[in-house]
Amino acid sequence: MSADRLLLGGFLAVLLVLPAVLSPYYITLLNYIGLYAMVALGLVLLTGVGGLTSFGQAAFVGLGAYTTAALTTAAELPGWLAWVGASPWLTLVAGLLITATVALVLGSLTLKLSGHFLPLGTIAWGISLYFLFGTMESLGGHTGITGIPPIELFGWTLDEGGEIYYLIWAFLLVAMLTTHNLLDSREGRAIRALKGGRVMAEAMGVDTSRARMIIFIIAALHACAAGWLYAHMQRFVNPTPFGVHIGIEYLFMAVLGGAGYVWGAIVGAGVITVLKQWLQDWLPQLLGASGNFEMIVFGILMVLVLHRAREGLWPILKKLVPVPAVRKKIDDAAAPLPRRTLPAAGEPILVAKNVTRKFGGLVANNDMSLEVRAGEILALIGPNGAGKSTMFNQISGVDTPTSGEVLFLGKPVAGHDSREIARMGMSRSFQHVKLLPTMSVLENVAIGAHLRSGKGVLSSAWRLDRAEEARILKEAAWQIERVGLKDFMYEEAGSLALGQQRILEIARALCADPCLLLLDEPAAGLRLKEKQALGELLRKLRSEGMATLIVEHDMDFVMGLVDRVVVMEFGQKIAEGLPDEIQKNPAVLEAYLGGVE
């Protein structure tokens, strides 16, 4: 049995025996830790992994709590709704549905914001929901709702702290398991790409707006479930625990524990809950006076911890009990992913006609035309400022021409986003390397296969995607081996040399199974042998029918590799032809290769 499973087994064993050895006071404290950790877990996914800061999660806790409180205590409900209030388990379903709907509406508005406007937006709706709970007479106003019935499970009434304890921690452990499973999947890689990799992810076919909405709703549902449990544990609710100040505490828990780690939610919730309780008990005795001294000390301690442990406490704790990293196994027996049929050699794949791009009075591209055919490598070269990158953006759909058109497989590129173009069969690398540095080489490359599979969130969370995941990893491993990075498959991508990172990008692009490969300065930073290996790879791809467009400055690399060359200067095409012809062209020599002798 692996060390990580032994640790998990030990943790579960401790959870099972604690109610038998601890006093009711500490059991109650553990119940609160479990509830807080469930909300913090949503923030781990939302903030730590997805990069979306939310201060409003306490409002979603309130939605879960007030839904069950209102439905289970109402003296009279409409006939169509009366059956829901008959059992707390039915009100849980109702609360989750209501919360998902509210989160969808709020997310559609809030997630369009960026920068500091996003957290400000979460504060705004968090305050709004808090005051809604306090002003609606049907929800008891600021007095709240009493008489909430306990939860019953298989005839067992959970009306004591030691009894509901097991249910709270069962909910939390299931949430942790499904979150861990989700992150270790196709959908999880898309979610992990949200923080610092959105442009790359979109180019690989990931719908990042959908991924953001998914984690926003999941985090809200975690909070709702915690609110449902809280209401039936307390048997009473009022608006106080659902204000923005509590939302800030939840965010502190996630960050303190380790915002990028599932187990960080428990660590953060445990440390803050216990520390606050101890400070409330000890400080009045030490200072001889009552007051909010604990908040002052707590704030100072928080600043010190965050200063010393930027990634939270969980990474530090992990070092105390070293657990060997689990390498993803490649299943050689997995069925290969489906492949597209490449166009016949010589068939035009990409055609740019009279492309002009103006930025105000600046003409970056002027009446540019070029054509890339199946089974050939075309180089686009020119001095700095010639307009190559702008032209590259017109071709890849990142930008739209002022006039003219770009056709890919006979269809116009303009008006289509990066995902649609990737689905059509165009894949690319970037001038400035874009990868996820803390993820392994294997996982980075696997992102390229996102469009070649379709298992969703529920399948990923409950491990129903394993056959498809095996196919994706097998494809990624093959592409890594193909480009010569097999020895680095399980290394963190950020630990590779720049040249190797560029090769990784090519492997990721190939994992998308394109018919046109766009490479933006692929030889930059490569050593001689690496360039030779890259050249051999591109020649092999050409022999298989792949079309490749290269923007490159390394003339020795280009002239010994490509079939044709297009030369730009000041946004215009000044020459096109075979490498030998271009090297002898007077206009090219004058503009780019050192002038005429």
Automatic annotation (TrEMBL):
The keyword Cell membrane applies. It is found in: Cell membrane. Pfam families: ABC_tran, BCA_ABC_TP_C, BPD_transp_2. GO terms for cellular component: plasma membrane. It comes from the Bacteria. Its main location: membrane. It is a multi-pass membrane protein. CDD domains: ABC_Mj1267_LivG_branched (cd03219), TM_PBP1_LivM_like (cd06581). This is ABC transporter.
